[in-house]
Specification:
This protein has 180 residues and is of the alpha/beta class. Helices cover 22% and strands 37% of the residues. It is globular, with a radius of gyration of 16 Å. The structure holds inosinic acid.
Length: 180
């Protein structure tokens, strides 16, 4: 894949190679395998972005687990709106269950806070977060982010499920926006 890609009005440069992303995901999976070895968690995939991370992560998971999906959106272009739209809700009975939310990125933490609240109200026993990437400088939440693949600066990125208005999810490497 080339060093630069352009989607709509923005150009992105290669930032994290796929080998580094794979190694980070394998490390997260090893921690999850250890922490959940006696449990039967539900992996809650946040569509659309976390699809790619979920597939990559599951290749390394050897625990007993099931998956479920929810769809939320908070981003418009390269900015978080701070308002979470629930597009597909929870269709799983989570009462008394351990839930591991899977995210492509934790940015402000608004999505995580929203999902946490929803799962608490639905009676989940234990809720944790595993994310492929996180922007610690942008995080405004108070909830712990339990498993983090890669910590990145507060700049917009695409690739590995992360998109710019729908584009770039299929890139194997992660690309960072070029300031215009
Ligand atoms: P939060 O609710 O602010 O934590 O944002 C989480 C969601 O915003 C993620 O699931 C992504 O959909 C989106 N997002 C945040 N930062 C980026 C980015 O750099 N690239 C692509 N999407 C992002």
């Amino acid at each position: 894949m080339s060093e630069k890609v352009t989607f709509l009005d923005k150009t992105f440069v290669k930032y994290i190679p796929s080998s580094e992303i794979d190694a980070a995901i394998a490390k997260v999976a090893a921690e999850i395998n250890e922490d959940y070895k006696n449990d039967d968690p539900i992996l809650l995939i946040t569509l659309n972005g976390a699809i790619v991370f979920a597939v990559d992560l599951m290749k390394y998971l050897d625990i007993s687990c099931r998956i479920s999906c929810v769809k939320v959106s908070s981003y418009c272009g390269t900015e978080s709106t701070g308002k979470i739209n629930s597009l597909i809700g929870l269709n799983e009975d989570v009462r008394g269950k351990r839930i591991l939310i899977l995210e492509d990125i934790v940015d402000t933490g608004a999505t995580y806070g929203h999902l946490y609240q929803m799962l608490m109200e639905a009676g989940a026993k234990d809720i944790r977060m595993a994310t492929m990437t996180m922007k610690p400088d942008a995080y405004k939440g108070t909830l712990p982010v339990h498993y983090v693949g890669l910590r990145i600066p507060n700049k917009f990125v695409v690739g590995r499920g992360l998109d710019y208005d729908g584009y770039g999810r299929n890139l194997n490497d992660i690309y960072q926006v070029v300031d215009s």
